[in-house]
Write a structure and sequence with these properties.
OsmC/Ohrsf; GMP Synthetase, Chain A, domain 3; OsmC/Ohr_fam; alpha+beta; Osmotically inducible protein OsmC; 6 strands; 2 domains; KH_dom-like_a/b; single chain; three-stranded antiparallel β-sheet
């Protein structure tokens, strides 16, 4: 069984620096704190959405490359709704996959996204444990 360890250190006020297993670091801060207007970093909940997009996106890019069906451009937009009561968590998540290109192979793109969503993306599975997750594929011809 694989394990990962991250170390998160309080650096000042409501700001933390966290590493990851690759050794890279990022800054997290409270998005509700007005004193952090000049802080460059991320809110913890927004990072969860970035992790979801990154996990699924990496799957899709890898699968499309193997299928020889790469798009010219690919982006994932995630819109998530937080609960009103504490502890606030994402209870509704919409994941929109946008592909742009002159020769988009619709069937292969749909297969790659579906494999990520249903089989490979562990972060997607984690989100499904606490949120209603919906996905959509958008094809944009150049």
């Amino acid at each position: 069984m694989n394990t990962n360890t991250v170390t998160t250190v309080w650096t000042e006020k409501v700001q933390f620096e966290s590493d990851n297993p690759s050794g890279h670091k990022l800054t997290m801060f409270s998005t509700s704190d007005e004193e952090n207007d000049n802080t460059v970093g991320f809110g913890p909940k927004a990072l969860m959405l970035s992790s979801l997009a990154g996990c699924s996106g990496l799957d899709v890019v890898s699968l499309l490359k193997k299928m020889r069906a790469e798009a010219e451009e690919f982006k994932i937009e995630i819109t998530a709704e937080l609960t009103d009561e504490h502890p606030k968590f994402y209870n509704k998540v919409q994941v929109d996959y946008h592909f742009t290109g002159g020769d988009l192979q619709t069937e292969k793109i749909e297969k790659a996204v579906n494999l990520s969503v249903e089989k490979y993306c562990g972060v997607m599975e984690m989100f499904r444990q606490f949120a209603d997750v919906k996905t959509a594929i958008h094809l944009h011809k150049k």
